[in-house]
Prior knowledge:
The chain is of the alpha+beta class.
Amino acid sequence: MNHLYTRGFTLIEILIVISIISIISGTAIYTFGDFGSQRKTIATAEHLVSYIKLIQQLSALEGVRIGMDLAENKLTMYRLQPDSTWATMHLPKFMHTPGIPLNTKIVLDTQIQHTPHIIFMPTGDMTPFNFLFTTKSNLKIDVIIDGRENGDIKMHFKT
């Protein structure tokens, strides 16, 4: 008598393992939520703080007022012209404005009602502002960037 031994898994066993892995993965994603988007939001805030500090230095080096505005999650930079008008500023490629991930929403809170909303002075001073960062799927505030009149910038994380 010949006994044939079969090796491997049956189709039923493979399907059961796949369904168990799917259930565990779905539960983990639901439990941990939007972890990747929140991390991208924090990284975007950190990048924006660095960018603001760079603009402060540019204003001091060139001795001109530079303005910043936020509209529809897009930053626009302005330079004050000798005739006291604001002109859109074209920055070198290494100073491009920070990209904002699709799932991140930024709200600018400032007392200035005209464009530009934030003005950087050559002396290092600037108009006070708050950037509020949220993820679009979770509307609680994750990060706040607080810009003070004396040029200080603080970043606060919400938990």
